[in-house]
Amino acid sequence: MSVAPGVSRRPYFPERGNEGYWVEHYELSLDYRVGAGRLRASAVISAFASRSPSLPAFTLDLSSSLRVSGVLVDGEPARYTHRGDKLRITPARPLHEGTLFAVDVRYGGDPRPLTSRWGGLGWDRLTDGVIVAGQPTGAPSWFPCNDDPADKATYRVTVTTGSAYEVVANGRLADRRRAASTTTWVYEQPQPMATYLASVQIGRYQSAEVPGPVPQRLVHPARLASRVRADFARQPAMIALFSDLFGPYPFAGYTVVVTADDLEIPVEAQGMSIFGANHVDGRRGEERLIAHELAHQWFGNSLTLEDWRDIWLHEGFAAYAEWLWSQASGEETADALAARWHRRLAALPQDFTLADPGARRLFDDRVYKRGALTLHALRRAIGDEAFFALLREWTATYQHGGVTTERFTRLAARHAATSLDDLFAEWLHTERLPASLTHRTV
Ligand SMILES: [Zn+2]
């Protein structure tokens, strides 16, 4: 990837991400004491050197509140410094362009959330357990990484902790071994994953399997069992609807974790979503959120933005999925919801463009709703058949890959009989909200 000198290719988080290599695989081994909040860990990172002709030194993102005790590159001790959440490593010999190399980082300490404008991000302690909420830049709170959503990699995560706790991480549970007082859990995520979607959840949970074409797992404190069962009862129907409209569910399974603590908002992770105790009431009171988080498995986790400015490709689509579920489940139609939200947005400040809203508006509800309205306007312009064919081709073409707004508009143009240039210019690149949801085509 080449950019002009002095121009960051990560304008929202210029301090994150690193040049000169691409990660292929993360192998994380974590030994964690829940009561003391102490971590002892190693990360073995396989990466390709991409700098020509060679890479004399490189950096990884890692919270400065963790302590590094040793770094090996291809088995040999390497020099390193660690400050400002950057681990700078100088291998014994430069790494030639195109070679695969392994970095082994030993580290530990008391992992804690990284501060951000959205509050603490990353590894956080619950009353009796752990939650990881990585979006957008929390991953370095618990492992050294190339914290760039464009650099997706496979993972194997091993967690050893007290046997009273259930541990959930992304992907398939490959092994579980019990020792005297601890249990070791091994999870494998063979589909590429962005760092912010990597997650570990630890709690005194029980776990129930929900069989079906997409195996689901509900993980929660025993006291919330009946509420969770009631609130997630229609999730299999949601998966069926979204698979029909968006294309096949992109992962081997889907795990929902409900924490014993309340959470401000649910948390998305690859193959997994995390809800707070306050999000379950036994009366499907937050079903909208269940649909929203599920939709992120297609839009966000399988298809991941390469730059945070394209957040609408995640949140606009997930918000629209809420409306599709609402209509399919016999509640308010997508048309009615679109009309209502169009009126509401028209009364709010229109001071950003959807395709580049600015870092501080990443999680602004206006971005979510304007994104959903853009999709509804597009659907009206090209018709239902072309619209859903477009979504299915979108998820198939970029499955487990990276996406941009330009790639979406280019693919959409191929599903339209007339030019969509004006529609996208008005909805994506103009601050003022279009006056109508029906676009006049010429
Ligand atoms: Zn979302």
From TrEMBL:
Gene3D superfamilies in alphabetical order: Neutral Protease Domain 2, tricorn interacting facor f3 domain
Location of the protein in the cell: Cytoplasm
Reactions listed under catalytic activity: Release of an N-terminal amino acid, Xaa-|-Yaa- from a peptide, amide or arylamide. Xaa is preferably Ala, but may be most amino acids including Pro (slow action). When a terminal hydrophobic residue is followed by a prolyl residue, the two may be released as an intact Xaa-Pro dipeptide
Cofactors: Zn(2+)
Catalytic EC class: hydrolase
SUPFAM superfamilies xref list: Leukotriene A4 hydrolase N-terminal domain, Metalloproteases ('zincins'), catalytic domain
Family statement: Belongs to the peptidase M1 family.
Protein name in UniProt: Aminopeptidase N
Lineage, broadest ranks: Bacteria, Bacillati, Actinomycetota, Actinomycetes, Streptosporangiales
